[in-house]
Amino acid sequence: MTFLNIRRWACLMLLAVAGTGTLLAQNTTGSIVGHVTDTTGAAIPSAQVTVTNQETSETRTLATTPAGDFTVPLLKPGTYKVTVSDAGFETVTTSGIVLQVDQTVRADASLKVGSHQETVSVSASALTLDTDSASVGQVVSEKQITELPLNGRYFTDLIFLAPGAVQTSGEQSNRIESGNAISVGGARTSSNGYTLDGTSIMDVKFNTPAFNLSLDAIQEFKLQTKTYSAAYGYSVNQVTLSSKSGTNTFHGSVFEYLRNNFLDARNYFNRPPVAVAPLRQNQFGYSLGGPVFIPKIYNGRNRTFFFANYEGQRISTKTTVQSNVPTADQLKGIFTFPITDPSTGMPFPSTNGVTTIPADRISRLGQLVQAKPAFFFPLPNQTGAFNFGGSLPTPTTLDQQNYRIDHTFGPKDSIFFRATTSDLYSTVPAGAAGLNPVSNSYFSQLARNYTLVYTHIFTPALVNQFRFGYLEALARQTPYPITSGDLSALGISNIFHTPADGYPNIGFATYPGLPNDSIAYAGSGSYINTPSIGNQPLEDLSDAVSWSHGRHTINFGYGMQWMQFDTKNDTNLTGSLAFNGQFSGNQISDMLLGDADSAGAATPGPLSNVLTGDSVHLHLRNYAPYIQDDWKATPSLTINAGLRYEFHATPYEGQNQFGWFTHNVPGGALYVANPQVAATYGNGIYLYNGKRGDGPAPWGAFAPRLGFAYRVNNSDKWVVRGGYGLFYDTVGLTEFQGSTSFYPYSNSVNFTQSTSPGPISTDHLFPAPTFGPVQKSTLQSSLYLFMPQKYKVPYIQDWSLDIQRQLTPTTVLDVDYEGNKGTRLFQRIDTNQPTQCNAAHNCNPLAQTSATILARRPYQNFGEILEEQFTGWANYNAMDAKLERRSTNLTLLAVYTWSKIMDDKSTSAAVGGDAGGAFGVQNAHDIAADYARASYDVGQRFALSFVAALPVGRGKRFLGNASRLTDAVIGGWQANGIYQLQNGFPFTISATDIGGVNEGRSNRANLVGNPYPQGFHKNIQEWFNKAAFANPAPGDFGDSERNFLREPKLNLMNFSLFKDFSLVDRLRVETRLESFNTFNHPQFGLPSQNVTSSTFGTISSTARDNRELQVAVRLTF
Length: 1117
What we know:
Blueprint: H1 6-18, E1 30-38, E2 48-53, E3 59-63, E4 69-75, E5 78-85, E6 91-99, E7 104-106, E8 109-111, E9 119-123, E10 136-140, H2 142-147, E11 165-167, E12 182-184, E13 192-196, E14 199-200, E15 202-203, E16 208-209, E17 218-226, E18 237-243, E19 251-260, E20 279-291, E21 293-294, E22 298-299, E23 304-323, H3 328-331, E24 334-335, E25 340-341, E26 346-347, E27 350-351, E28 354-356, H4 364-371, H5 373-376, E29 388-408, E30 413-428, E31 441-459, E32 462-479, H6 484-490, E33 505-508, E34 532-549, E35 552-568, E36 576-579, H7 587-593, E37 595-596, E38 598-604, E39 615-632, E40 637-645, E41 647-648, E42 652-653, E43 659-662, E44 669-672, H8 675-681, E45 686-688, E46 702-711, E47 718-728, E48 746-751, E49 760-761, H9 776-780, E50 783-786, E51 795-808, E52 811-830, H10 850-855, E53 864-886, E54 890-903, E55 932-933, E56 940-949, H11 964-970, E57 973-982, E58 986-987, E59 990-991, E60 1003-1004, E61 1006-1007, E62 1029-1030, E63 1045-1046, E64 1050-1062, E65 1068-1076, E66 1108-1116
Parallel strand pairs: 1-7, 1-8, 6-9, 13-18, 33-36, 44-45, 50-53
Antiparallel strand pairs: 1-4, 2-3, 2-5, 5-6, 10-17, 11-12, 13-14, 15-16, 17-18, 19-20, 19-66, 20-23, 21-22, 23-29, 24-28, 25-26, 27-28, 29-30, 30-31, 31-32, 32-34, 34-35, 35-39, 36-38, 37-49, 38-48, 39-40, 39-41, 39-42, 40-46, 43-44, 46-47, 47-51, 51-52, 52-53, 53-54, 54-55, 54-56, 56-57, 57-64, ...
């Protein structure tokens, strides 16, 4: 674990004592406000208001203002009662007030003349309007979290219940980067912030949740899509989770969820005899909460509470593989056909048609393979087109623990601490690229998260809340580790070797015209020869102050985040060897002889850290003060006005291993953070300008917020709200990694037939390098990924108008308009793309050389430069409609979104992004031409979710007088479901880049006809009229638009049926049958997009799995 330094701890303690600052990220508390009058409507000042948490008995007491108003801020989500009393008036108690995450609930009271000892009891509505805030969002309750059918039990799947939320690809998973599949309110998939109990749980590499919190540990969460409070920042959308805590009553659960392939339907495209892939999946765990109670020692009721949760997941599945492997004799060097001696060009001697390679000709690699052949290759086990068939295990293990303790010291002070650990391990086989464990990659994702929250009440009108959170997310994908003996036996030198490194990757391919080389063999060695090792510590400190004064509730403060990303920098760390049989006549004999067609590896540069595999340490700091004033302008109108300032420090690398591209030097140059690099290795192209990063850091990042909430006719039944907010976005640190990878830190050696004619001996890899100043020829023939000279902060302006109507005490209708505009969005551009070469430019694209291509580049000191620019822009307009009902027997949420998203690029860069070509920016010299529908635009989307207790059985509407025995059969049934219907995503038609106009990437196709002519009926064999597209002429860009066709729509139903049995007292058993894609409707994927493909226009895969079933048992009390 990374520990805070002394100076940082001192800063933390000073802020805690001083009580200055703010909630940097999201607020997981809520507020109760009200107005107290007599029966004539006159305000009652100084009335006593007592707010009590009905589950923990925690209380807050205060007096109303001279205007009769009261505000109770920073309350935990839960169920409350509000008691209002004053001399000469009857006491009014309103109970059952449900306060949700980041909600302001109104609890007005009208007092009648009488004795204050007389109490009038009122029950609150099950669903209340947020009457005093311009913010719009969707709360997902504990019932929805634990009872809706969720495949894999990922809380992120519940985000799609909200208006404007779109899942952009496939199913969610427990991998960190899977969270990038979520777009909300027209924003990019990387523009969602995630907090747990008010502190960030963001993985700083991908801008996604660092772990998927167990559903049984979540009290509720809220998706904020129009967050106008200045307390929010660093992303336009906020997912705010609140963990469960203990109460005065012991409560808990024990659960087991089971899936296996016998309950699953076959994929639409897998016809018999292809079977469903083997699967065994178990999810199990417990939760327990209550007061801390030690008989005769300590009674924590009303004071100290605990909550504990554990969830485990075990997945065992297999990947079925059909491939070819060498025989045992072949690995011994014995062949039944001629083998050529590459040193003479003549066949090795043979006897009766059997050729044996002499032992003294076997290379070091061949000797290692012969010493333990079963380690590198399985033996053939069948006959036919493939001599090997098998199933490769893919096990996954997840263990997560959550612990929380809450304590109230007295009427003014309370504290809670939560600790979460999550450990995920998975084995990923290489498939045909390697059939033995030596080719497996091993994925681990570990997270440690700790949060401390301290609340102090100075006065009933002045409350302070301090938060500190620490997150460490460690993600690794490493190969099978090489032993020191095998490393020595291979004799490969001058490359990185660390404990995480594996064996070289061994690949095979056929060579045209060889009679004994027509079979492509399965590979061996490390399939993942680029270990991915990332550690992302994040420290989040904030302090929020809430001050109620007259008609104003003022929130202000300051927050800080320290983020770091530690990772390996180089690719091909273990080395790669390719054999194709061209030297001896067969791939396997080439391998045994050590005669490779090509070889390559990352090799240490003169400033590389050999032992750590050229690791880098990227740092980012964020600071944000803010002030927010919620002004009760009139009894019906609340104005929310705030101002936030965000300082995004320029990212830097801890060892000054950082460079950024400058356009201001003829031919282009690279500014570097290390003066030694510029002086010793720069050669006039690396320059030092006295900075550690591509700064200076941008100032002036002010984020104003202005909104209103108006109660029509001073009623709690109608609310009109709206506002405007400016939100700055945070760029994932993985986008800056490319700026740390350049000579003299990173180096590589590659041998190919074009550069090294003749066989490449694996016994002599790799020669000791010689180092000197960087050479133009090297830069001009390489691809680089750099940040620009000036770092900027992307921002989004968001505005909305919302009308909300409470139809019944349990039903609310909400209709709103939302618009936003993204500016300076982060995107990757081929900034050194050559100018166009075609007849119009008096240039022959088919006669180009590296020299003529270089002459057409804007910056001729370099080859291809992928620059991380702040030049993207987007806009979004939408109408959302939502109907929500929460009653005893029915929780229902129906949402509809009609929207349009336009942009010039839909992803930032490294995560899911394309630098150029058909799927990125096609022409870097004309970015505006790519303005089109965003890749996650669906136009229209409908989602329906429900949790419904069937009205049958004792005490119910039907058969309410049934006997207990009958009720055991017919009673206690519950139906739940999630239905989603949306248009397909837009996609682009690509073509082959014949003339190299897109640097060898795909081009866009030319549109030569109507994709959907009259009478055309699209189907999976021909999703569009293929004759409408053609490959552009060499050197030409395609003229078809980006993202102008749509893939198939999503039509998906998940459904579950529960049966509840009452055992004793509060102990209940619940059995569940859950189905995903209940109606087994094939959710077709993307059609083949390239005009030159033999499958062009054909759909051959599904975007979602076919029907899957899950059974579960839950014991609750």
